[in-house]
TrEMBL record:
InterPro entries: HET (IPR010730). Pfam families: HET. This is Heterokaryon incompatibility protein-domain-containing protein. PANTHER family: DOMAIN PROTEIN, PUTATIVE-RELATED (PTHR33112), HETEROKARYON INCOMPATIBILITY DOMAIN-CONTAINING PROTEIN (PTHR33112:SF16). Signal peptide: none annotated. Residues 1-143 form the Heterokaryon incompatibility domain.
Length: 284
C-alpha cells in the first residue's frame, strides 16, 4: 500500500465517521473527494499499487477509541508502506499537488574547469523544500521520518528519498547522509551510541516544536510514532517527550530564540518539566 502525507487545512469534505463507515467500506464518493486525495489516487494507480492509506478515510474521525488505536500504529503504518506520497505544495486538501511546476527554477548542470581537476560539473539549484506547506505541519514530520521511501511533490520538482540517497526528477542526485533521516541508525549499546541517539532526539524535538498543530492537545500524539522508534530498552523509559537516559540534559530546554514567550495551556497536557506542557518552539 501507499501512504499519503498531506496538510488538511481545515475540515475535510469527506471523512470516515461512525455514520459513514459502512458506506465507505462499499464505495467512496469520488466526486466529493478533495483534489489532494484525487491526485494521490492517480499516483497510486500510476505506481500500480492497489491500496492507498489516507488518515481522514482510514481512521474513524469521531471515535476516540479508533483514533487511539490508529495513532498507536502510526510507526508501522508509515514504516511498512511501499512508499509515502508527500503532497508538499498543498496547503489544504483542496489544493492538489500535480499542477505545473516553475520551469525557470529547475536545476541546471554546467560544465566547468577547476584548478585541481581537469573538468567537472557544477549543479545550480534552488532548494526551497523547507518552505513548502507540508513542512509547517506537526503531524507530517513523523510521517516523513518513518517512511523508508518518500516521493515528494514539491513546487519546483519531484524528489525521491530512501535510505540510500535522494534524487530529483531528471535524475539529479542530491547530497546525502543517512543521518539526515533523523532516525537512530545505531543498534549497539555503547554509551557514545546512546548519547548520539539522545542528541538526535533533541534535534527532532527542536524542529518539531517549530511546526504547527491544528489541535495543540496533539503535541505528544503527533510525535509518538518517532518516539517508539527511538525508545529502545537500553535508553530507559519514555517520559512525556523525554528519554530517561541522560535525562538531566533534556530537562534544561528553553524557549527558542524566535519565541517571545511560551504560553501554557489552561488544561493539563503534560508535566511542567516537559516541553510538551507549553506551546511554541523549544531548544536544548
Amino acid at each position: 500500500y501507499v501512504a499519503l502525507s498531506y496538510c488538511w487545512g481545515g475540515p475535510q469534505p469527506v471523512e470516515t465517521t461512525k455514520a459513514t463507515l459502512h458506506r465507505h467500506l462499499n464505495a467512496l464518493p469520488m466526486e466529493r473527494l478533495p483534489q489532494t486525495i484525487k491526485d494521490a489516487i492517480a499516483v497510486t494507480r500510476g505506481l500500480k499499487v492497489k491500496y492507498l492509506w489516507v488518515d481522514a478515510l482510514c481512521i474513524i474521525q469521531d471515535s476516540l477509541e479508533d483514533k487511539a488505536i490508529e495513532i498507536s500504529r502510526m510507526t508501522d503504518i508509515y514504516n511498512l508502506s511501499h512508499v509515502t506520497i508527500s503532497a508538499s505544495t498543498a496547503a489544504t486538501c483542496q489544493d492538489g499537488f500535480l499542477q505545473q511546476r516553475k520551469l525557470e527554477k529547475q536545476p541546471i548542470k554546467l560544465r566547468a574547469k577547476f584548478s585541481h581537476v581537469r573538468k567537472g560539473n557544477v549543479l545550480l539549484m534552488v532548494d526551497s523544500q523547507g518552505d513548502e506547506p507540508i513542512h509547517k505541519r506537526g503531524w507530517t514530520m513523523q510521517e516523513h521520518l518513518l517512511a523508508p521511501r518518500l516521493l515528494s511533490f514539491g513546487s519546483l520538482c519531484l524528489e525521491y528519498r530512501c535510505l540510500s540517497g535522494r534524487r530529483r526528477d531528471g535524475g539529479t542526485p542530491l547530497p546525502w547522509n543517512q543521518q539526515q533521516t533523523g532516525m537512530p541508525i545505531t543498534e549497539g549499546g555503547a554509551q557514545e551510541d546512546k548519547s548520539r541517539v539522545v542528541a538526535q532526539w533533541a534535534n527532532i524535538v527542536e524542529a518539531y516544536t517549530g511546526r504547527g498543530l491544528g489541535f495543540l492537545d496533539d503535541r505528544l500524539n503527533a510525535i509518538s510514532g518517532i518516539a517508539r522508534k527511538f525508545c529502545r530498552p537500553e535508553l530507559g523509559e519514555y517520559l512525556a517527550g523525554l528519554i530517561s537516559f541522560e535525562l538531566p540534559s533534556q530537562l534544561v530546554w528553553s524557549r527558542a530564540a524566535s519565541q517571545t514567550s511560551l504560553p501554557r495551556p489552561k488544561a493539563y497536557r503534560a508535566p511542567s518539566w516537559s516541553w510538551a506542557a507549553i506551546d511554541g518552539q523549544v531548544s536544548f
